[in-house]
Task: structure prediction
Amino acid sequence: MLLVGLALSCIRPGTTRRVGLAAQIFALLGTLVGVVAIAIGVGPRTAPDIAYHIGIVVVLVSGLIVAARTRFAEASPRV
Result:
């Protein structure tokens, strides 16, 4: 999903912020499904898998914070 968001951002630069937020939210929701699966015992509970999911959640939340705090004027391309 993040690659699709990147491709859409390259095709339509004016929608970069909106597409970036949507792609990151979708990816975060998918990752949270994995975290819930681990928590209820459905998914693998290995240390690397847990560390991976925690790391991805941290990166996605950080990206969402940065993207959400960026003002529209700063996000739009300057010609």
